[in-house]
Amino acid sequence: MKYLLAIGLAACVTEVGTPADNTPHDEWDDKLAGRVLDYNAALRVAALRLTGELPTLVEMSAVATAADPKSAYETQVHAYLASPKFARQMFRFWQDTLKMGDDPSLDSAPAFAAEVTVLNRPFTDLFTATSGTCPTYDIASGTFTPADCANGVPATAGLLTHPGMNKQFFSNFGFRRVRWTQETFACTAFPAEIATVAKDVGGATPYTGMFPFESIAGAATGGRVDFRDTSAVICANCHSNINHIAPLFAHFDATGAYQANIVVPTPLANNPVAVMTDYLPAGEGLAWRFGTPVTDMASLGHAMAADPAIAECVIARVWNWGLGKSDIIDGGNRVPAATIQAQVDAFTRGGGKLKDAIFNIFTSDDFVRF
Amino acid sequence: MTRRVFLFAMLAACTATSIDDSSYSDDYFRTNPWPELDRIEREGPPRFTSRVHSCSKVRYQTLGNMLASRGVNLAATDPLSAGAIYKASAAALAGPNYLQRVRENVEPGLATESKLFDIFVQAAPELIANMPNRAECQKNGVGAKLFDAANKCQLDGISCLIGVPATQTHVDLCNQTIARADDVEHGKQLAVAVLAAAANTCE
After folding, report:
1. What is the ipTM of this complex?
2. In terms of domains, do B42 and B73 share one?
3. How distant is the Cα of B72 from the closest Cα of chain A, in angstroms?
């Protein structure tokens, strides 16, 4: 009881005080207001992030002695973004974001994401690109060599069908791939959706998912794992979303190769292969979110590309990277929507081009104040 | 049941579709809330912390680039050389392990910072000798030296070492470190290591 009260109070208390609430400012607002412009310090951080190196003496001098340090700083950020070293940094950024690297079969995923970023292509290509999703990247020369993935998928859908990703996150039921997709690109762990009205399903706590409780499989529908179980926790709170996505990832085997049939194992005795009725009752369709049905990986990619939460997430990730935060999920470094609203709006208006967004973030008022 | 509805109403009121809100519901379900409350009290709420630079550890690959660009030979094989220590210390420096699906840890830790200081101490002689020859530390073809002929610390040299324009305070502290050492050479090495460590304890 105390635990849940603390949850509720903390969630409420920490959000009170935003300007939109018209509440009086507090000590934290004073601290924010007390920051001062420091383009020299900003240049150091920008150089470390965008080139992976300290600024040179000439670069430092150009900003430190400029009559208009803001303009000089922005000129230098442009130069960093145009540098071959930026490609290297993007490759590293995406290795870390995707948790994939240090093996050629894995590195082509961050290479693809880095290529999309460096070329300023729409970020949504990460879910919707139909070719060229397995490029190689040569750190020494800073060049990308385009290549298609060769894992037999009927249709490529960006990183969602990437063989390295499906190999790296292979698991029972394909659930680890779903979790990776959710946490990497939606920036929240499961449960992905929470209804405004809870439903009593006979457990110690109510069911809070958006889908009907009966929309996922369980013992009552012949499923071999009871995802409707309520005896300990409400499994369906997470699995209502997970089970509507996972079958799409269940066609990739342990090597990441696509197979016509579901091939992922289950954690049951002798690890039998999963079947569709383990996930969903007969007749229930797949969905990215409640009310957003999908039929295949391509439609999943397009549904994700159209979800505003995905755009918010990548901006939050780049924001945290720029300001030296640890991971938004693993490190719990949340980014309130108000903090990055201007960047998200510009990103969305500009066609989802991440390189442009990086410039906006690295020249934002918060970035250049210390 | 009333309690459940009340608690759920509280949660629902504070959870929506935005990044900050929805992550609250998840984080608080999965973690003990008291350390989180303590963290918010100590560091500030997300609306504050999200808008200020963090004190993050320098990333492993970036450290290597930084050392190399200032004249440290990362291919050195002497086990006590800065390059060899760096190469052998990916784990101690909290580098990533992608094959195990582990991201780089950018939170500074005592062991990590200690290893970083070890590297800077061992790197100091190379930095002093080689930095002026690096293009990154030259202006109009003239290399920035860390020390002049009288073993006094130099502004431009320190600037190139730490990555921001140095101040007279940096120079004074550098000279004090030399003056307090048993001999000048060790004092210079210690001064360089201290300046580098101070600049890079937080990126």
Report:
1. 0.89
2. no
3. 13
